[in-house]
Specification:
Rossmann fold, 5 helices, globular
Length: 203
């Protein structure tokens, strides 16, 4: 089995990283924050790592704060002029960072974000998945922009009723981080199993 070199950009939870490590791959996460769990992690700017030939696959989770549709609604509120003033600038910076990751010198890339500005300013996602397709009773749109990767197929559909976990969620992990920023374990396992299998059969 070919060991893949995998970078999980903008991940502090280690969930996706650990799913690839469990399959024997050389995976590391990167974020400005420290890792919630022990494991290979670079705390710093992901651009420090984006050198040609260093990775076979990157899964990137750029911050969605200014890119998501919920922030557009928030910025339109007349009682929040400070948010409105910053919105256009921060949204553009967020988009540029997301596209920097997508166009990085890595042959296979998955860019993950909710529905929002990337959809209109860049292009529609290649796939929209939801946690209930991978064993979690949550209803949340997760957009995937794919470069050199096939769409994921669902692994464990959960029937309704579903819980919601949106932009305004106050749910936290044990370390106080917002759960909306953490990849669901079932999704991470599907990414690791399906995409590593695909690359081992095609490269």
């Amino acid at each position: 089995m070919k060991q893949l070199r995998v970078l999980v950009a903008c991940e502090f939870s280690g969930v996706v990283r650990d799913a690839f490590l469990a399959l024997g791959h050389d995976a590391m996460s990167c974020d400005l924050l420290p890792s919630d769990t022990p494991g290979p992690h670079y705390q710093g700017d992901v651009c420090d790592l984006l050198q040609p030939g260093h990775f076979d696959l990157m899964i990137a989770h750029p911050p969605c704060t200014w890119l998501c549709a919920a922030m557009r609604t928030n910025a339109a509120r007349k009682d929040r002029p400070n948010v409105s003033d910053r919105y256009q600038v921060e949204r553009q910076k967020g988009l540029e960072f997301a596209l920097l990751l997508f166009n990085a010198p890595v042959p296979r890339v998955c860019l993950e974000n909710p529905i929002g500005y990337i959809n209109s300013a860049f292009r529609k996602p290649d796939q929209i998945i939801r946690p209930f397709m991978f064993g979690h009773p949550y209803k949340k749109d997760i957009c995937l922009w794919l470069k050199g990767l096939p769409p994921l197929f669902e692994t464990d559909r959960v029937l309704p009723p579903y819980k919601t976990l949106d932009f305004w969620s106050k749910a936290r992990n044990p370390n106080g981080r917002s759960l909306k920023s953490i990849t669901f374990a079932g999704v991470a396992k599907a990414m690791a199993a399906q995409w590593s299998g695909y690359l081992q059969n095609t490269d």
